[in-house]
Structures are given as C-alpha cells and as structure tokens.
Amino acid sequence: MSNVDAQELAKFSDLAHKWWDPDSEFRPLHEINPLRLGWIEQCAGPLTGRRVVDIGCGGGILAESMARQGADVLGIDLAERSLKVAQLHAMEAGVASLRYREIAAEALAVEQPGLFDVVTCMEMMEHVPDPASIVQACATLAKPGGWVFFSTIHRQPKAFLHAILGAEYLLGLLPRGTHEYARFIRPSELARWCRYSGLDLQHTRGMGYNPLTRRYQLNADTSVNYLVACRKAAI
C-alpha cells in the first residue's frame, strides 16, 4: 500500500458513480477503449481463453471489454468505490469470466507470479508515486512469453499543452486537476524500466485526438499519449 497517492484515490472514488456514463468525465476512456482493445488483440492475438489481469482497472471499462472477448479477466484497483461500480456493472451485464479485487499490483505479484498471459496497465502509472514499481509488478505477473501493455503520457511541453491545458482547461474533456505534469513519463524512462524488469519492448504507438472530428486515433506520434507493448522472455 506504500505505492499509492491518497488524493488520487479520493479523486477517482468521488467520481466512481460516473464510470459507466459515456457522457461523463470518463467519456474519453469510453471513446478510446475500442482502440485500446483492438491494439491489444492485434499484438497479443485473440483473447479467448487467455488469463488476463488489468492493473488499475477503475470502473472496469477495459477489463469488461476483454472479458467479452472471451478472456478470463481479473481487474484490480485500490479504489473501493470504483470496484463496486465495476462489479455491479459486470453482474448486470452478465459477464461471468470477470472478477475484481481490491489489491495493489505489487501484492498480487507476490501472490500470483507468472500466472497471466496478458497484463494491462492503462492510464494508471502517471497517478502513482513509483511507476517503476508497477512495471516490475506487471513483469512479475506475466507468464514467460506473456504480453504486458502500458499506456501513459509523455512528459514534455507538447503533452502539457495538449493533455492539461487543452484537454482539461480548453476542451473540457477531463476534469481540471486530473493530471499532474511532473508525473508524466517519458518513453525512454518507461523503456528503461521495462528492460530492468525483464520485458522486451515490441511495439509503441501514439494516440491522438482531433478536436474537429472529436475522434481519437492511433498513430506514430508518441509526443503526448502513447501505448507500449512488451513481452516477457520465454524460458
């Protein structure tokens, strides 16, 4: 529990009842989720029958979509209210191959090392004090040959303009204060943590937003939002 920011937990707990409202503060997550899911399957292959853990699952938007693809999914988070919303939505939707637990990534890594075919940690690392610890936990959780996926925000001036000034203050896509610039992560930093954790970086993609069409798309520009696919070495 040391790698947690109480203010960040409180922030997302206060918004927990809005997780599944596509017109709420979580609208961007609903809109980018098909892109995230498609990219995961493009890299790792079909999720049917695969054992998956979603780190920092929040209200379960990505976790539930992976379960709908046939994966056996465990979503974990430390925000109790968000997990309750996720559990209720899964129950109402009749998604059986989906479980949720209130547990830290590091604790789960000690409990269940090397048990997951796919590990996802999306839009989460920029909200914790020690993101390198999360990367190590994700690597530990993955099976040899398993896939690990991250998404986060580049720490450089363009990202400050787009992700904070643009998304939070000008366009109102996110609540003000959602992100803190100092916690953004450079791709070189994430790549270094992955190497130290025994992960081989396979693919990197950027994610952009067009304010005119109001649509997100994956592209080659990693200067703001970006996604990374890694693979744990096979024995």
Quick structural overview:
By secondary structure, this protein is an alpha/beta fold.
What does this protein structure show overall?
It contains 8 helices and 8 strands. It is of the alpha/beta class and 235 residues long. It has a single domain, classed as Vaccinia Virus protein VP39 (Rossmann fold, 3-Layer(aba) Sandwich), CATH 3.40.50.150. The protein has an 8-stranded mixed beta sheet with strand order 3-2-1-4-5-8-6-7. Strand 1, helix 3 and strand 2 form a beta-alpha-beta unit. Helix 6 crosses helix 8. Pathway: Cofactor biosynthesis; ubiquinone biosynthesis. This is Ubiquinone biosynthesis O-methyltransferase. It is an enzyme of class 2 (transferase).
Distance between the termini: 31 Å
Count the helices. How many?
A: 8
Strand content: 25-35%
Number of strands: 8
The CATH superfamily title: Vaccinia Virus protein VP39
- The CATH level-2 architecture is identified as 3-Layer(aba) Sandwich
CATH class: Alpha Beta
Q: What Rg do the Cα atoms give?
A: 16 Å
In the CATH scheme, what's the topology name?
Rossmann fold
Question: Could you estimate the helical fraction of the residues in percent?
Answer: 25-40%
Shape: globular
What count of structural domains? 1
Query: What is the mean predicted local confidence, pLDDT?
Result: 92
Low-confidence stretches: none
Q: Give me the side-by-side strand order of the main sheet.
A: 3-2-1-4-5-8-6-7
Query: What order do the SSEs take from the amino end to the carboxyl end, as H and E?
Result: HHEHEHEHEHEHHEEE
Structural class: alpha/beta
Main β-sheet description:
8 strands, mixed
Multimerization status: single chain
Pathway: Cofactor biosynthesis; ubiquinone biosynthesis
Family: Belongs to the methyltransferase superfamily. UbiG/COQ3 family.
Organism: Sphaerotilus microaerophilus
Protein name: Ubiquinone biosynthesis O-methyltransferase
